Request: fold
Amino acid sequence: MTTKYWNAQDAGCGSLIVGLKREIGGIAAGGLLQVTASNEGAPADIPSWCRVTGHTLVSAAHPNYVLQKKDD
Amino acid sequence: MSEQKKLVIVNSRGFDDERSSVAWSIANTASASNMDVTVFLVAAGVDWVRKGATDVAQLNPLDPSIGDMMRSFLDNGGRILVCPPCAKVRGYTEESLIDGATIAGAPVMLEEITNGAASLSF
Reply:
């Protein structure tokens, strides 16, 4: 299974979410996106975005996150 | 989750107000979160879509530039409406505005709310 890595650094709020959408857009359904996001809002914002969009949050140990892209 | 939620953001804030950056950031986040988002620009907020206006505008150094946020918003399917009298009083016509901005008034925005859109205003 493909795993893509994105270092979001300190991107927060809108910048983090727009980046997540861009990065996950480039992988196939079921593929994994590994993210490093050091922003203080990330522990709340990334799980929330996953709930809203339907992608699966496989693991969250700030600042490291793994998302699985939902099926089309 | 399968049904797309609607959101209307009314922005009356211009180049001298950091709240403009917050409004565009929230609009951008919403359009990147599978929401159907309409930004309705009124009063000084109309200046954001004048061609060339955002080339150097960055109101919060931790946000992207306003131009980058607007482009991303439009790329993700966001819609920008521009209050007709607010544009006219500034001498703007449709030709003065960036692609993706449409001169349309309160009825179009209110139709979104009638159809269930939540609203935020700045």
